[in-house]
Each structure stands twice: as C-alpha cells, then as structure tokens.
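Task card 7
Instruction: Convert sequence to structure tokens.
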Amino acid sequence: MCVQIYIAIARGGVNPQHCLLLPASHQPNLGFCPLPVVEECDRLMDVMREVNYEQGLGTLFFERYVPMKQTRTMHTQVHAVGFPGHLTSALVESMLYRTVRDSGSVLVWEQHDYTLSLPHVMGVLANWQPDQMGRQPEHKFAHSSYWWITICGTQGQPSCTLIGVTQSPVGVNLNLAREVLAHTLNLPDRVQWKNCVTPPNQETEAALHLKQLLSNSLRRLQQSTEDPTR
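Output:
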C-alpha cells in the first residue's frame, strides 16, 4: 500500500496530464529520502507510465526542489507529465541537446526499454566520485547539486534517463525539463507554471479525472504489495 508518497494534480501544469509525486514527509530531495520512500516513488512512477501508455502517451519524469517560505526548507516534487507518444524522439533529442548545452553538468545518458528504476538513479548519484563533482561526499545531495530526467516513450519509441551533477555555484535549472517539453509541445507560453494556473473548479475536475484513471492501477499495486506472489 502506498503511504509515503501521494499523487496530486500539478498546479499550473504544462497540460492536463501533469501530476506530482510528493513525499508525505516533505523531504528536501530524493537523495535525503530513506530507500523505502524512493522505492514507493519508483512504483508510482511505473503506475503513471502505465496509465499514460494505455492512452498512447509517453511520460516525462523529473525532480524539482521547491523552497518553502514558512519553514525555509526545500520540498521535493517528482513531476510526471504525459505527452503525445509520437513526440518522444523529438523530446529526447531536444532534452539531450539542452542538458549538455545549458546545465554545466557531468552527464550520464542511459537508454532502456521503458523506465529506469529510481533506486538505480539515486545509486548512480550516491556513487559519484567527489572529484567529478568538485564536492565532498557529504555534500552529494545538496539541493543544488544534481538533476535527473527520465523520458518513457510509447511502443517503438525511445526511452532514456539523463543524470547530471553540477559544479556551478548557481546550481541547476530545475525548470529545464519543463521548458524543453513546453517548446516540444509548441506551447512556449506554458514554460512558467504561474502562467498556467486554472480556476479551483477546473483543478477539482482534473483531480477527480486523475483519480478515476489511476484507480485500477493503484488497486493492482496495492494487491501486489500486500501479496508479492500475485
């Protein structure tokens, strides 16, 4: 049963298929999360990919850390955004170009069938050599130090994960994945979430629609978690 991560509609999402996976414990980023939290997030990412795949959609996943004004801490968000499957190749190409050009990061690019496990991504980051990062090991998961982006295509389309660690003092452009997706969708006005906020009644309708879409997949996930032999 999923108890450590909850799913919400993204306020000001790129499109109606834009959701958030949020640790209930308000972690600063996934690097600080206990392994069970990362594993649960990974299972829910697979649910999101499956639901989008059934609709002919690919899925873009990326992590973004958001500063909380009241507590003055960071709160991580894992974004899951469905997009038309036929745009997968264009999105992968644009994402690879922009991350290499703009991030100032060491880059790992791994191709895979559908999705790369989140624990594996965190493992890659945790085992990064300090001299590659220009940081001491205890600073590996500072909020401005790393980024990852996973693109899951539909059948016959590529899937890949990009992982990077920045040495730049200004940190990571955590909106980069959204920027690239918005331009790939030919929706440049949706780069910034504040330009995309919808009225509360529309947000409620979107949340109910998401709940309906996810209900069967989440039920299967709960059953498999309670009985691993299923």
